Amino acid sequence: AGAGPVVCACHGVGLDVITATIAGGAGSVEAVGAACKAGTNCGSCIPEIRKLLPEALARDAA
């Protein structure tokens, strides 16, 4: 509930959780993985996380 569309299937991490993690200060794929486990298993979601990083950071800066 409230996690958004699943980005990381391995750990069931949703888009909203990842963007909130980035907004909370995770500025790299590794930091996102450490905070919410997204991207730490098979790695297929890492390109999507990389894409979300600059978008979320730019949105927070605005």
Describe the structure.
Helices cover 53% and strands 8% of the residues. The chain is mostly helical. The protein has one domain (6-61): Arc Repressor Mutant, subunit A (Orthogonal Bundle). A two-stranded antiparallel sheet has the order 1-2. Helix 1 (15-23) crosses helix 2. The relative contact order is 0.21.
State the share of residues found in helices, binned by percent: 40-55%
Based on the structure given, which CATH architecture is correct?
A: Orthogonal Bundle
- N→C terminal distance: 28 Å
> Which word captures the global form?
globular
Counted by DSSP, the helix tally is 3
Runs in which pLDDT lies below 50 for 5 or more consecutive residues are none
Q: What's the SSE pattern?
A: EEHHH
The radius of gyration computed from the alpha-carbon positions, rounded to a whole number of angstroms, is 10 Å
Instruction: Tell me the fraction of residues in β-strands, as a range.
Output: 5-15%
CATH topology: Arc Repressor Mutant, subunit A
A few lines on this structure:
The protein has 62 residues and is mostly helical.
